[in-house]
Each structure stands twice: as C-alpha cells, then as structure tokens.
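User: Can you model how guanosine-5'-triphosphate sits in this protein?
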Amino acid sequence: MNISSAIFDCSAPDLDSCPDESLPEFAFIGRSNVGKSSLLNLLSGKLDLARVSPTPGFTKLINIFTINKTWRLVDLPGYGFAQVARKDSSQFNHAVDDYLKHRTNLSCVFALLDSGLPPQEIDVEFVAWLTRNAVPFVLVFTKTDKVAPATAQANIAAFTVRISGWFEKLPVIFTCSAMAKEGRQELLGVIAETMTAIQAESEPAQQEVVIPSADLAATGQKAGARSARKKRPDLSRPW
Ligand SMILES: Nc1nc2c(ncn2[C@@H]2O[C@H](COP(=O)(O)OP(=O)(O)OP(=O)(O)O)[C@@H](O)[C@H]2O)c(=O)[nH]1
Ligand SMILES: [Mg+2]
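Assistant: Here's the modeled complex, given as structure tokens:
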C-alpha cells in the first residue's frame, strides 16, 4: 500500500469529540511506552506525525490522523501507567474504553505487546477485555530490534499459550520494530485487506431493507429500533 498523504486530524478528549464516522479507523493500543506512536509513524511514513517519548503515559488524548484522505490512524493513550484497575473495565481511561466499545467505524485494533517481555498480566487482561467486547484486533509484538530472536519467539509463544483457550482460531500475530523499520508492509497489508473487505461489505448494505409495519409490530418496536441503529460492520475478515 502506498501512503500519499498523512495529516493530523484532531486530539479528542472523549468519544463525542471524535470526528464523524465516515472513514474506517485503525487504532493502536497497548501498555504505556510499548511503541504505539512510533509504530504509527512507521506505518504513515512520517516520522514526526505522532509524538514519541521515553516517558510512559505520554499520549493522553485520542489522536487521529487521516491517511490518503480515505482512512484514519488513531493513536490511543496507553494503559498500565498510573491507572487503577476496575472490575470489568479495560483498565485504562474511560474515553479509550468508550472509543473501543462504541466507535462504529473502528475497523481493526493493533494491540501492541513488548516482544522483550514474558506475558504481562495487564496485557493478558486487556486481550481478554477486547475478546469479551468483540473488538476486532490483531496482536503486534514490538521492539524486536532490542531482543534476541529466540527470546522474542519464546515470549510470543508463552503469550499465545495464555490466550489460546479463548479462541477457535487464534488472533493473527505480527512482529515489528519501528527502530529497524520492520513489519511495515505486513501491517499495511492488514489495513489494505480490511479496506477491501469493508468495500465488499458496503455494497449490498446500500440497498435499504424495508420492514413491513405489521412485521415490525410483531417483532416488537424495540427490536425494530435496535436494528435501525448503526452497527460496526461484521466483516468476513481475511486475517
Ligand atoms: N529499540 C526500540 N525502541 C522503540 C521502538 N519503538 C519505540 N521505541 C522507543 O520506546 C519509547 C516509547 O515509544 P512511544 O512510541 O512513544 O510509545 P507509546 O506506546 O506511544 O507510549 P505512550 O504514548 O507513553 O503510551 C521511545 O523512547 C521510543 O523511541 C522500537 O521498535 N525499538
Ligand atoms: Mg504514544
């Protein structure tokens, strides 16, 4: 995939402040300092698009960037830094929780994990939370330049063992290094394939289905109102 333009759109403090839902979004999430902003810069091809910092908890708002005028990259605040775990919460701020649960144009989340670390409880919990809330995601192990390949593979294998019981088909796993500029094409491939799936999905959806009023009464007004509300598309995902 070719990136011809990457433009900062806005920094939103909460879901209601995010721009309209007209373009598919791809969001980066993970523990503070795992390399979300750096990876976003690698994918966009603009090394100063999102702010990178060695200080954990640097990204505090939902930062949105429009790419090729057709889709968006979203840099989310990290979790696990000065955050108090709440029962059945995503263990990060309310705005991110809201964004991940309710943003209907959120097409795929890149859930980032540090390839240099054995499974961290907070990451296992977070992947469980994504799974429970049916958020579409792939796993991305970062900073592979910092660790011996065998160590990274062992950490990835150990993480896979922790989560494998939850899935019939395991989430797709990628590795990357923003420093060594590795993993860019593979992750852009996820975006390209998702965009193709969205296009394929939207074609039949353009024909509006009219439910006869008698049927609507039979199924109940509430069910009718629910089906009329906009939903996140259920894509036949290629990955
Ligand atoms: N060696 C190495 N360092 C990296 C890599 N990616 C990011 N870093 C460094 O890790 C630190 C954190 O990077 P960020 O991209 O700001 O991480 P973040 O996840 O956005 O952090 P918060 O916004 O604080 O949650 C910075 O010092 C980066 O230079 C990588 O692939 N390899
Ligand atoms: Mg950041």
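A couple of observations from the model: Helices lie at 36-44, 94-102, 121-132, 149-163, 184-205, 213-219, 221-228. Residues 36-37, 58-59, 75 surround magnesium ion (ligand 2) (CB under 6 Å).
User: Helpful, thanks.
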